[in-house]
Amino acid sequence: MGKLPPITGSCLCGAVRIAVDGPLAQPDACHCTECRKHTGHHGVFVDVPQAQLTVTGEDAVRWYRSSEKVRRGFCGTCGATLFWDPVERDWTSVAMGLFDDATGTTLEMHIFVAEKGDYYSLSDGLPQNQH
User: Where does the record place the CENP-V/GFA domain (predicted)?
Assistant: First the structure.
């Protein structure tokens, strides 16, 4: 059996493209205030080891340092949310909305639900962590 092709994706305008070499872990839905403001709703990200992530068009990526330990990446051309990146770790969280095709994953849990917006409810039966 041969190696599976990478899982690919891009921002809205295509200036930034990604490829993940290997299967994806289960993503989390983060409802913290920072993710809500960064994405416009809640953020759904999947942790990808940096060794498995290829980014093309890095010159279009803009970074916002939202805390001492985290930076958030977005496309400087179209503004699409791209990454949640803990700067001292060997992985990057990739926004699930970037992927071009089916990912073979399902949402694992909701996190930071104590900070979620009041305009929606969580009724999918998944675990909900308050923080």
Answer: 7-121
Give me the DSSP letters along 12-72: SSSSSEEEE-S-----EEE--HHHHHHHSS-EEEEEEEGGGEEEE-GGGEEEEE-SSSEEE
Answer positive or negative: Cα dihedral of 22, 99, 111, 37: positive
Q: What is the pLDDT of residues 56-103, one digit of tens each?
A: 999 999 999 999 999 999 999 999 999 999 988 999 999 999 999 999
The angle at the Cα of 19, spanning 13 to 25, to the nearest 5 degrees, equals 115
CATH assignment of the domain containing 44: 2.170.150.70
The pTM of the full predicted model, rounded to 2 decimals, is: 0.93
Residue 109 domain boundaries = 7-115
Q: How many structural domains is the chain composed of?
A: 1
Q: Kindly state whether residue 129 falls inside one of the protein's structural domains.
A: no
